[in-house]
Amino acid sequence: MVYNATCLFMRYLFFVLSMLLGLNLSAGHIMGGEMFYQYLGNNQYQITVRQFLQTGDIAGTAFAAADPYINIIIYDGSGNNLIQTLTISQGNLVTFSNNKEDPCTGAQFDIIEAQAVDFVETVTLPPIAGGYLLTYFRCCRKDDMTNMMADQGYGIEVFIPDETIAPENNLPVFSNVPPTFICVGDSFKYDQHATDLDGDQLVYSICETKVAGDPYTAIYFDPAFDVTPASHTFYSNAIWNPGYSAADPLGNGSVSIDPSTGEISGYADAVGKFVISICVSEYRNGVLLNTVIRDFLVVATEDCPDFTAGELSTGANFYPDVCGNRATFENNSRNATHYFWDFGVEEDEADTSVAKEPVYSYRESGVYTVTFVAFDSISDCSDTIIATVDIEMPDASFTFSGICKDDPITFVNSSNSADNSALSSIEYYFGDGDSTGKINPNQTVAHTYPKSGVWNVAIIAYDTACGIDTAFQAILVPQTALADFSLSKEVGYPEEAIDITNNSMHYQSLDWDFGGIQMTGDLQGELDLGLESGTYEFILTANDANPDCTTRDTVIYKVSNAGFAVPNAFSPNGDGKNDYFRVLATDVIDYYLVIYNRWGEKVFDSNDPSETWDGKYKGKYVQPGMYPYECTAKNADTGTPFDVFKGSILVIR
């Protein structure tokens, strides 16, 4: 392996210093890891790097302890500008393994004991354009991996999105530890789902494994050795041995992951040590916010016993498929012929099953201790697993306001999600055949009932862990005041009485406003208001025992001033007095005036009531005398025609 001379010298110098200081350089025990963060408020993020380390095996081999500290390098979102380097001390350590021993034969799996080591720190990161890029790198992975080139570094990174895209974001967190081994010749399934505090959509995939530096030149960046780069330039895809790839880490095309549930499955057909990387991508409103990578090393072994009750799902920690109150139990036992399950409900004597893979519906949220026994038909030897199942369901509820008939009632969701999830949607059933379908939990809904009565309303709350809860309330919609009146006609004439029809119901009292004229009581029939020409707003208020249910009805009434008059003489002699003939018309339409001479010739006509006749015909004044006319028009307010005006005009000279 050839290193850059300067880099080699720096590594050698650090090696000497570390021997003097007692630091741990060996990282051959690294089996993978992941990074995530949680938003705490006030621009503070709790950042967690979780390393998976091999700490021992069945032969009693001891491996190096976890690092006492790590460095996280923080850049701006472009990766071009270094913000800070964050040093984090070692935190919580949890030992895990999915090994088992067959109590009947004494056979034992090739045990791989591992630790999940958390490095947790809180950092303040004010919003900046483009967000932040968080990176962590480490040298080196195990040097005897089957599917990857030896001595490659380890790298992970995540983003804190720009606040304009996803303010106060939380990353998805994997719920279960990764597997440490699989049995050659057997298929496997492991639950690798994640949860997201923001309720974002999560999509799972098999993805590229990342390393620190350039695996082709064997020059790697490691914050423990090198100066922190000013820009993000040291992140590469891993180099796979022939016959393997990120999409095919076991080399047989069997590994896949359910994009919706995060369940990874496949089978091993050869022994070896294999790195597998899975990604969970976080989407909000169809926009990709982040992709969290978990990579881990799994050992494929032939040293598996012929019989075991095995793991019910993933590892000895027992993770059934839980959907709300319903738990589906997966049985991975081998060479067993009959089974017994006790689902841990103390008050229910019927909480048992002899099915191979039962489904049990719990009635309440809680932590239940489940006992599973698998029996061998030949020796009747049995193996037992006892584990806990955490049942979390949302608590559905709602409030409402406004109980007046014909007015919308407002419904507000007050449901609470289960502790391990967030509300994903709600659904209302209003009891009158109408419903909302699934909607956003924060959406306020208004609904109007067709009539008074008692309506049984239901809300269904759904959470991101597929939990469901339903709540009911009976809502009384009373008969409330209804203001309703009409007029025999909407246009009248000055001093003309109006004719009222009052259809109001369920009121305590009635108040009338006739364009400023106030009256009370049940008014019906003709009413003389002495109105002059103009437009009036008539308002009826029906008062209810509940002031919030008082209603009003409004009618617009117009007193028309339409009409016209025809003068009977004029003198077109040029003296400036009464020289023009004009019809006096107001608020008319479809107007037409025609004037004839005594021989029946049309001497003047017009469709414009403002147009005048100057007494001329063909450019010359007509002779004095009588000139017959006819005038027609319609009322502009009602569209009804006036009577035809006929008569004669006296022309005086």
Description:
The protein folds into five domains: 5-306, no CATH class; 307-391, Sandwich (Immunoglobulin-like); 398-476, Immunoglobulins (Immunoglobulin-like), CATH 2.60.40.10; 485-559, Immunoglobulin-like, CATH 2.60.40; 563-651, Immunoglobulin-like, CATH 2.60.40.1220. It contains one helix and 49 strands. By secondary structure, it is mainly β. The longest helix is centred in the N-terminal third of the chain and has 17 residues, at 5-21.
Q: How are the elements arranged and paired?
A:
Elements: H1 5-21, E1 30-41, E2 44-57, E3 69-76, E4 82-89, E5 93-96, E6 112-124, E7 132-138, E8 154-160, E9 173-174, E10 181-183, E11 187-191, E12 194-195, E13 201-206, E14 210-212, E15 235-237, E16 256-257, E17 263-267, E18 272-284, E19 287-301, E20 321-323, E21 326-328, E22 338-342, E23 352-353, E24 359-361, E25 366-375, E26 382-391, E27 398-401, E28 409-413, E29 423-429, E30 445-447, E31 453-463, E32 468-477, E33 485-487, E34 491-492, E35 498-502, E36 509-514, E37 517-520, E38 525-527, E39 534-543, E40 551-559, E41 563-565, E42 569-570, E43 584-586, E44 588-596, E45 602-606, E46 616-617, E47 620-621, E48 625-635, E49 645-651
Parallel strand pairs: 10-19, 34-40, 42-49
Antiparallel strand pairs: 1-2, 1-19, 2-6, 3-4, 3-7, 5-6, 7-8, 9-12, 11-17, 13-18, 14-15, 16-17, 18-19, 20-21, 21-24, 22-23, 22-25, 25-26, 27-28, 28-30, 29-31, 31-32, 33-35, 35-38, 36-37, 36-39, 39-40, 41-43, 44-45, 44-48, 46-47, 48-49
